[in-house]
Amino acid sequence: MNKRSWPCRLGLAGGIDKDGSRAVELLAAGFDSVEFGTVTPQPEEGGNPGLAALVSRLAALSPRLTVKPHIGIGIGMGSDAPPSALPAEWAAGLRGARHIADYVCFNLSARRYQSLLNAARLPLLRHAFETVAAVRQSEQGRHVPLALKLPLGVQDAFPLTLAEAAAANGFDAIIAVLPEDVRRLDRLRLLADRLRGRAGLVAVGGIRNAADAQAACAAGADGVQVHRVFAELGAACLPALVDAV
Questions:
Q1: DSSP 3-state of 9
Q2: Residue 192 is inside which H or E element, if any?
Q3: For 128-146, how does the pLDDT look when each residue is reduced to its tens digit (9 = 90+)?
Q4: Which residues contact 75 (CB under 8 A, 6 or more apart)?
Q5: What is the CATH code for 3-244?
Q6: Model confidence over 139-165: pLDDT tens digits?
Q7: Measured between alpha carbons, how far is 25 from 136 in angstroms, rounded to an integer?
Q8: Is residue 28 within 8 Å of residue 222, measured between CB atoms?
Q9: Mean pLDDT over each residue of the chain, to the nearest integer
Q10: Nearest-CA neighbor of 5 among 240, 230, 238, 223?
């Protein structure tokens, strides 16, 4: 899964299943990829079982799968960790997930990470990108694709700069959360132009039907992810979406 060859045209976004308890159902639904999490390296109260528990459940399930879409694992940072811990948290997440995940997604889209999404934090974020890229390079085993998930916003240039920085450090995909705004596709098109094919581009947020998926792909996305429409309709949402991408 490298750059514009990102194969996951239709994916299920993270947030539906954080502990793998629905893995059998979700992996059989018909997606190209299913992302589990977001989880943190250590368990936390409030429905976050931690990375080890999720990986253990997925590893036990894997040999029994006859149809296996790409498995993504979303990694976040512990709620009590200071911002400076981000590189170490992400590195621990990659080390814990790489043996079962087909890609690892580092999630900056949640509200709790808003304080990181400003120009003053760019050196820290670049350090985090460099750290996980170095972990991937140094450890033996298969090459695990890296994805960055971030809110695309409407006017702020920083998400575009951050996506470019991730691509420059070898990230394989940017998962862009589209804003709830009429300019959403203009922003997606601008990001696609800025990336210039250096990383795959996946659109998520407000993708509810074939027209939404087709519009995102026409604006430069290599694939889309869905969340809310699957939560509402289950696998019944897939047939039209499969044809669209």
A1: coil
A2: helix 184-195
A3: 999 999 999 987 777 899 9
A4: 37, 38, 39, 40, 41, 51, 89, 90, 93, 94, 97, 104, 105, 106, 107
A5: 3.20.20.70
A6: 777 789 999 999 999 989 999 999 999
A7: 30
A8: no
A9: 92
A10: 223
